[in-house]
Each structure stands twice: as structure tokens, then as C-alpha cells.
Amino acid sequence: MLFNDGRLRVVALASMDDSATLLISGEIDRSNSDRLGAILAEVQVTTRPAGDAMVVDLAEVSFVDLSGLRVLALIPGVPREQAPRVLNMPPFVQRLLGLLGPDGDEGGRTG
């Protein structure tokens, strides 16, 4: 287990291929989104040099606020082209991410 604050849990799963799979469950909100971003960035940095892929499984996520959406859309310090593959994204997260612009800014408006 990489993180558990009673509301959010992040577990690294063993994988048969060369990917690092993280199972995220619970609520991603302002109280834990910075820590989640740091975990995702750290795992991405450790898997990327080896050529491994990172997979994030959101099947057990029950709530995400705007700070959590930003972390999922833009992992701190990770270029978009190296973003992890996301599995089992709940429909409510898909809808909310659709409201964000290409840079994680609400509505994609720049001015």
C-alpha cells in the first residue's frame, strides 16, 4: 500500500507485464489530491526510465473534486505524452474531465 488516509487508498498491484498498476479507491479531494499527485509523479519517474508503463485503475473511486480532476488530467511534472493509461474510469469522472479544457483549466477558456 502506497497511501491510505481513511478516505483515499492507493495500492500498487503486481503485474504480469512490465507495467506499474496502481489501484486507486475512495475519494480524491482537496485534502489528499496533492499527495496523490506526488505518488503518481514518483511512480511515473521510477517506471519510465525502465520503459515500463504506468496504469491507473479508478474502478473503486467514489468521488472526485476539481483538485482531484486536475491531478488525474495533469500529473505534476509528467508530460502529457507520458501520461499513464487509465482503466475503469467511472462515468461521473469521464463527464467531469470532459468539462476541463486541454490544460486542465475549467471550460478550456483562456480569457
TrEMBL record:
SUPFAM superfamilies: SpoIIaa-like (SSF52091). Pfam families: STAS_2. InterPro entries: MlaB-like_STAS, STAS_dom, STAS_dom_sf. Residues 9-72 form the STAS domain. Coiled coil: none annotated. This is STAS domain-containing protein. It comes from Spongiactinospora rosea.
